[in-house]
C-alpha cells in the first residue's frame, strides 16, 4: 500500500493518495474543494469508511459479554485496535490505552479521576496559555472543587512557551501536574514535551500531554517523551468521529478511581459496594463504540504504512511553502513561530477583515478553513486578537492547495477593496 | 459568495450609518455572538412612542456590522412597537443576500440586541 503512495524519492505521492479520500473529489460551490481544516477534523480514507460498514456487516455484537462466535470476534477486533494504538505511541502495554470519545473526554477523565484523588488544598497544576479550552476548563472545575491553584506558562511574541516560568512555578514544590499541549491548535507551535516532562518529573510532578494535534501528524513515543498521560482524538487522524484514546501510565491508572461507573467496568457488584475491573475496562463503562475503535485501528494501519516520520516531513514542507507564499501576499498577517517547531497549522489575518468574512469568501472559492478563536480564547486574549483564520494541512494536501488559498486570499482583498 | 459581500453590505460595514452612542438613552443593550466574538450595542431615544434616535456601536464581521447599520436605518422614526413585530425574515430580506446557516447569527445579532433592549427578549429572533 505505501509503495503506491510514494514518489520515487520516498515522498508522499499526494495525487495518488487523494484518491483514497472520496470526499476530496466532492466539489464545493462548483469548485474543486480544498480542505484546509484537518486540525478540526481530518477526512477519512476508503479503508476506514469500509471498515465501519464491514464491522456492522460481519462482526457486530456487544463485546465481553456473549460466549458466542460474533461476540468473540467483536471483542477480538476491539482488542486488536487497542494493540495497534499502543504500538503507534509505544505504550508499554495496551492496557494503558483507554478508549474514549475524544481528547476532551480523555482530559476530563484525568482531571476528574486523578485530580479528585490527588489534588489537595494549595496544590498547583501548571498549564499554558496555548491550551485548547479542553485542557483548561476541566482543570478550573477540579481546582475549584479541591482548592487547588492553576498556573499558566506564558508565551513569547512568536508563540513559544517561556519555559523559565515553568522553572519558577516548579520551585514552589507544590506542583502536582504539568499539562501541556504537544502542538498548539491555534498557532502550530510544537512544544518541547520531553524537556518539560524531565523538569516536571524532577520536581515530583506528573506530565499530561494533549496530543490532539501531534499524534495524527508526527511520531509520538510516550516513553521517550516522558508522558504520564496523553490524550488524542481518532477523528483528527483519519479515524471515525467519536473515537479517541487516553494513554496513562499503568500504576497511575491502577491507583485512580473510576471516572464513569456502570456495566463492563466492574468486577463484582453488591447493593452497597462494588469492585473494579482491571485496566483498561475500569475506565470503559458501558457499551463501547466498538466499530469506531476498529475504524481507528484501520486508520492507524494506514498512517503507519505511510509512516509518521514521512507524514511530518510532508507537512513541514507544505507549511514552509505556505508561509513563504503567504508572506508575499500584501495585508496578510501570520501568527505563530517560524522554524522546525512549527506544525502544519497557519493562523493568519487579512488586513482588518474579520476572520469570519475571510472564511466565508474562501468558502465561496471552494476552500475550507477555520475562523474564530479556535477554542483557545485565553490565547487570543494574550495575542490581543478576537479571532484568526486558520489553514491546517495533512498528508492529503499539497502545494496546489496552498496556491488556491493564496488565490482565495487575493479574492478577499479584492472584495474588501484592500490595496485598491 | 460575491453575493454575500455585495456592495451595499460592504458600504454599510465600511461606513456604518448611525454609528456611535446616545447620551442618556431611553434604553440600551449590548450582546455578543460567542461563536465569533461579534459585538453590537444599540442605544435608543424614544419620543411619544417613536424611535427619535437610534445608534449602534460594536465590532465584528462585515455581516454583523452591516446588518446592525441597516437595522438602525430601518427603525429610525418608526414606532417602538414595531420592534416587536420585526422578524428575522424582515432582517434577512433587508440584507437581500443568501445567508448560510453558519452566518445567520451574525446577520441577526443587531435585531437580537434591539429586541432585548426594548422587551428583554433574549432569545435569538425566530429564523424563517
In brief, what are we looking at here?
The complex is a heterodimer of chains A (420) and B (128). Chain A contains 14 helices and 15 strands. Chain A has helices spanning 14-18, 46-59, 69-88, 103-118, 137-146, 163-170, 193-202, 222-225, 250-255, 290-306, 308-327, 355-364, 377-383, 399-415, and strands at residues 34-35, 97-100, 124-128, 149-153, 175-181, 206-210, 229-233, 244-248, 266-269, 274-276, 332-335, 345-350, 367-368, 370-372, 388-392.
Q: Which key features would you list for this structure?
A:
heterodimer; A: 420 residues; Aspartate Aminotransferase, domain 2; 2 domains; seven-stranded mixed sheet; B: alpha+beta; Sufe protein. Chain: A; three-stranded antiparallel sheet; 3 strands
* Helix-strand topology string of chain A: HEHHEHEHEHEHEHEEHEEHHEEHEEHEH
| Spatial sequence of strands, sheet with the most strands of chain A | 2-8-7-6-5-3-4
The main sheet of chain A comes to: 7 strands, mixed
- Going across the major beta sheet of chain B, what is the strand order? 1-2-3
Please characterize this protein's 3D structure:
The complex is a heterodimer of chains A (420) and B (128). Chain A is of the alpha/beta class and 420 residues long. Chain A folds into two domains: 2-30 and 307-415, Aspartate Aminotransferase, domain 1, CATH 3.90.1150.10; 50-304, Aspartate Aminotransferase, domain 2 (3-Layer(aba) Sandwich), CATH 3.40.640.10. Chain A is built from 14 helices and 15 strands. Chain A has helices spanning 14-18, 46-59, 69-88, 103-118, 137-146, 163-170, 193-202, 222-225, 250-255, 290-306, 308-327, 355-364, 377-383, 399-415, and strands at 34-35, 97-100, 124-128, 149-153, 175-181, 206-210, 229-233, 244-248, 266-269, 274-276, 332-335, 345-350, 367-368, 370-372, 388-392. In chain A, the strands form four sheets. In chain A, strands 2-8-7-6-5-3-4 form a seven-stranded mixed β-sheet, sandwiched between helices. A four-stranded antiparallel β-sheet of chain A has the order 11-12-15-14, covered by helices on one side. In chain A, helix 7 (193-202) links the parallel strand 5 and strand 6. Chain A starts with 13 loop residues before the first helix and ends in a 5-residue tail after the last helix. The mean pLDDT of chain A is 95. With 128 residues, chain B is of the alpha+beta class. In chain B, strands 1-2-3 form a three-stranded antiparallel β-sheet, with helices on one face. In chain B, a hairpin with a 4-residue loop joins strand 1 (27-33) and strand 2. The mean pLDDT of chain B is 90. Chain B has helices spanning 7-14, 62-75, 81-85, 88-95, 104-119, and strands at residues 27-33, 38-47, 50-59. Chain B has one domain (7-119): Sufe protein. Chain: A. The A-B interface holds A 29, 353-357, 360-361, 363-365, 371-373, 386-387, 415-417 and B 1-2, 4-5, 10, 14, 35-38, 59-63, 100, 103, 106.
Amino acid at each position: 500500500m505505501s509503495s503506491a503512495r510514494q514518489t520515487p524519492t520516498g515522498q508522499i505521492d499526494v495525487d495518488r493518495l487523494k484518491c483514497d479520500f472520496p470526499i476530496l473529489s466532492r466539489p464545493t460551490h462548483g469548485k474543486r474543494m480544498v480542505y484546509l481544516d484537518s486540525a478540526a477534523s481530518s477526512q477519512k480514507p476508503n479503508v476506514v469508511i469500509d471498515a465501519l460498514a464491514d464491522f456492522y456487516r460481519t462482526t457486530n455484537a456487544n463485546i465481553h459479554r456473549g460466549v458466542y462466535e460474533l461476540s468473540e470476534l467483536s471483542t477480538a477486533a476491539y482488542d486488536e485496535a487497542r494493540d495497534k494504538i499502543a504500538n503507534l505511541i509505544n505504550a508499554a502495554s495496551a492496557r494503558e490505552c483507554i478508549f474514549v470519545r475524544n481528547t476532551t473526554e480523555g482530559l476530563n477523565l484525568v482531571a476528574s479521576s486523578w485530580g479528585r484523588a490527588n489534588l489537595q488544598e494549595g496544590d498547583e497544576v501548571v498549564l499554558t496559555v496555548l491550551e485548547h479550552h479542553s485542557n483548561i476548563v476541566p482543570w478550573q472545575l477540579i481546582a475549584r472543587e479541591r482548592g487547588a491553584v492553576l498556573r499558566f506558562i506564558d508565551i513569547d511574541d512568536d508563540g513559544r512557551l517561556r519555559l523559565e516560568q515553568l522553572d519558577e512555578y516548579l520551585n514552589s514544590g507544590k506542583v502536582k501536574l504539568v499539562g501541556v499541549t504537544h502542538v498548539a491548535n491555534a498557532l502550530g507551535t510544537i512544544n518541547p514535551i520531553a524537556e518539560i516532562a524531565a523538569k516536571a518529573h524532577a520536581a515530583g510532578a506528573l506530565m499530561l500531554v494533549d496530543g490532539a494535534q501531534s499524534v495524527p501528524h508526527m511520531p509520538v513515543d510516550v516513553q521517550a517523551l516522558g508522558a504520564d498521560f496523553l490524550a488524542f482524538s481518532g477523528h483528527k487522524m483519519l479515524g471515525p468521529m467519536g473515537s479517541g484514546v487516553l494513554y496513562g501510565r499503568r500504576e497511575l491508572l491502577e491507583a485512580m478511581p473510576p471516572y464513569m461507573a456502570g456495566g463492563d467496568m466492574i468486577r463484582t457488584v453488591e447493593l452497597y459496594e462494588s469492585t473494579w475491573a482491571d485496566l483498561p475496562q475500569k475506565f470503559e463503562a458501558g457499551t463501547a463504540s466498538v466499530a469506531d475503535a476498529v475504524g481507528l485501528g484501520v486508520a492507524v494501519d494506514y498512517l503507519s504504512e505511510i509512516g509518521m516520520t514521512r507524514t511530518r516531513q510532508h507537512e513541514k514542507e507544505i507549511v514552509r511553502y505556505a508561509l513563504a507564499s503567504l508572506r508575499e501576499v500584501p495585508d496578510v498577517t501570520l501568527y505563530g513561530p517560524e522554524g522546525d517547531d512549527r506544525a502544519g497549522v497557519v493562523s493568519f489575518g487579512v488586513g482588518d477583515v474579520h476572520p469570519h468574512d475571510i472564511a466565508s469568501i474562501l468558502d465561496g472559492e471552494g476552500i475550507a478553513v477555520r475562523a474564530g478563536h479556535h477554542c483557545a480564547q485565553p490565547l487570543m486574549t494574550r495575542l490581543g486578537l478576537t479571532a484568526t483564520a486558520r489553514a491546517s494541512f495533512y498528508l492529503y494536501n499539497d502545494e496546489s492547495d496552498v496556491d488556491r488559498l493564496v488565490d482565495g486570499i487575493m479574492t478577499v482583498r479584492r472584495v474588501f477593496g484592500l490595496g485598491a | 459568495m460575491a453575493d454575500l459581500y455585495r456592495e451595499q453590505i460592504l458600504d454599510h460595514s465600511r461606513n456604518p450609518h448611525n454609528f456611535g452612542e446616545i447620551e442618556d438613552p431611553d434604553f440600551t443593550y449590548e450582546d455578543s455572538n460567542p461563536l465569533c466574538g461579534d459585538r453590537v450595542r444599540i442605544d435608543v431615544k424614544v419620543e411619544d412612542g417613536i424611535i427619535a434616535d437610534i445608534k449602534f456601536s460594536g465590532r465584528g464581521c462585515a455581516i454583523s456590522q452591516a446588518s446592525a447599520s441597516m437595522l438602525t436605518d430601518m427603525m429610525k422614526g418608526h414606532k417602538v412597537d414595531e420592534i416587536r413585530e420585526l422578524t428575522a425574515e424582515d432582517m434577512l430580506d433587508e440584507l437581500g443576500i443568501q445567508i448560510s446557516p453558519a452566518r445567520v447569527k451574525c446577520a441577526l445579532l443587531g435585531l437580537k440586541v434591539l429586541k432585548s433592549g426594548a422587551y428583554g427578549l433574549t432569545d435569538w429572533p425566530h429564523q424563517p
